[in-house]
User: What shape does this take?
Amino acid sequence: MSDLGRLEDLPKQYVQDLRDLNLVPLWPSLRAVLPPKVPTRQTQPTHWAYSTLKPLLLQAGELTPIEKAERRVLVLANPGHGLENMKASPAMYLGMQLLLPNEWAPSHRHTPNAVRMIVEGEGAYTTVNGEKCPMSRGDLILTPTGLWHEHGHDGTDPVVWLDVLDLPLVYYMEASYHINGDRQTIVPGRGDVQNVRAGVAPTRMFERTSKAYPMLRYPWADTRAALLALAADEPGQECVQVTYINPETGGDAENILGFYALMLRPGQSLRLPARSPAQVFHVIEGQVEAAIADKTFSMVEADTCCAPGYEAVTLRNLRADQPSFVFIADESPLHRKLGVYENRG
Ligand code: 1HN
Assistant: This one.
């Protein structure tokens, strides 16, 4: 590969003349924006242990009333992207949100898509476009782009959940904004109740739903049962994984980020191929070691880590006698839609 000319090789006055006209020479920067074979990634393998994060989140509950926060969140920021940029990866934002008993996080809607993975506590709920979605450990609740959502808590103990949003991407596109709304009226019709059986869909006078997002809550009890059934049905299958899908389209649950649940058999080590999208791993149940590039993280329940794209990841179940369960979020739908998706094996 030939060396390209550097900025310092050019006369200072020439560079200044260019700059004055809002012009920049490409060749000094060409290799930086288009490196050979593998992209430059700011995303660093990063582990957030719940045991260290939780006391600080509870402290936020004492320091900042919900009225002063709207959403009481500690952001899981990747140092490679600069903490203030609030990115776990190029397209993913992660935050741990705390709601205390009787608190209320008011209704709003916004352009970024969100999901919540419930980490701890009972009695809280999210209302999404009038549909009340109870929160229990391991449940996945969608708040896709444009849908009204608010959070309430009728229980007795703190509730914590992991928010995953495509905020960094939507913000980068200069398309991120929100609108505040009034408290929602709860309407009948729960997607998780109506879509409880795979293979049949609710139908009214031979018409299927007009809702773009017919399923907003994916109860962990059902997802876990699906994984155990898969594992039992194919004892030789090493990858026991399900994708959270839109039951009407069969496509990804949301447009930009992909969501999956993975079961690791007792003692299993599973190598995930090097694919272009960045990924996030969150332990729902069990103990899992994640080997990502030159880092190895030992994760327990409620821990979260992230991996840059184009890196293979090896997950190992540290429990010899029981399965472990991992929630995965990635940037696959985005990469596929843009035509840049790669699986390098
Ligand atoms: C948001 O709307 C929520 O509704 C949580 O709980 C985190 C982070 C950035 C932008 C919007 C929520 C958010 C957010």
